[in-house]
Design goal:
By secondary structure, the protein is mainly α. Helices cover 65% and strands 0% of the residues. It has twelve helices and no strands. It has helices spanning 13-29, 42-57, 64-81, 89-113, 116-123, 128-142, 148-152, 155-170, 177-205, 209-215, 220-227, 256-264. Helix 6 (128-142) crosses helix 12 (256-264). The longest helix is centred in the last third of the chain and has 29 residues, at 177-205. The chain is globular.
């Protein structure tokens, strides 16, 4: 593999490496415990993302290995968020899904052109993960109460952090059209999930068995497989996610720093 020329826009390697270092220390002190429940694809997701970043920051060109790891990371992301209850699901899930789909297309373009700019644009959306975690920490210690646990477990905090982190990361892309494409992909993923949920409800409660067989070929089940679904009958307007669905945040050892800082009331 040949070395490639790194591209920079308005992002900072110092900031990125600092945030990743903080995340590493956070997980080290927590002994790799996570709020995320066990999922068979999670180890592959983490390994693929780590490999992608390693290849890029070691200045390698966009090789077939980069394409494979990008697809593993993106496809496992679709699986991981398909039933994600965190945040406000009708908005939070499509943010992950839209970014994953765009990256799969962008990495193919980078591999075809071998242009460092295209490769850069395929990698920077990955940083939305670390930006989102930083925003969660900021919002969780900001208010409205002095309880870090109450603040950080609000649906609004997670939803705003995921969207904000994604906007920051995509904003570092070299093409202004990247932001437009990202927002449109979010909208499309959300519409597909809404359609899938409605069709699934109609098949279950309204249509006959013959209609059910016909609906199998209409694409609704493909969208269910890729995006998941949410029903208009779900209780999604709660400000705090149900504890039986989402493990409460703020209970790991390193979260004590957040609790102390939130109580300062600064």
């Amino acid at each position: 593999m040949q070395a490639a020329t790194r591209i920079h826009t308005n992002e900072s390697d110092t900031l990125l490496f600092g945030l990743y270092a903080i995340l590493f220390i956070y997980h080290a002190f927590n002994r790799a415990k996570s709020y995320r429940g066990h999922h068979k694809y999670l180890p592959w997701h983490v390994l693929a993302g780590t490999t992608e970043l390693t290849l890029y920051f070691c200045n390698f060109n966009c090789t077939i290995l980069a394409v494979i790891t990008c697809y593993i990371h993106s496809l496992t992301s679709l699986s991981l968020v398909k039933r994600l209850p965190n945040g406000y699901p009708p908005h939070t899930r499509p943010i992950y899904q839209g970014g994953a789909i765009l990256r799969m297309g962008q990495i193919l373009q980078a591999y075809t052109t071998q242009n460092p700019i295209d490769y850069y644009d395929a990698i920077v959306p990955l940083h939305s993960f670390i930006y989102a975690r930083a925003i969660i920490g900021l919002l969780g210690t900001m208010g409205p109460s002095q309880s870090f646990a109450k603040n950080v477990n609000s649906r609004f905090v997670y939803a705003e952090a995921i969207f904000g982190g994604a906007l920051i990361a995509v904003g570092h892309c070299t093409k202004p059209s990247a932001m437009v494409a990202f927002l449109l992909s979010i909208h499309a993923a959300g519409k597909v999930s809404t359609y899938a949920g409605r069709r699934a409800w109609e098949v279950k409660y309204v249509y006959s068995f013959i209609s059910f067989l016909l609906c199998r070929f209409c694409g609704a089940f493909l969208s269910l497989f890729l995006f998941g679904r949410y029903s208009v009958y779900e209780t999604l307007l709660m400000t705090v996610a149900p504890p039986d669905e989402v493990p409460p945040i703020g209970t790991l050892p390193m979260d004590k720093l957040g609790h102390h800082y939130a109580r300062l009331g600064l």
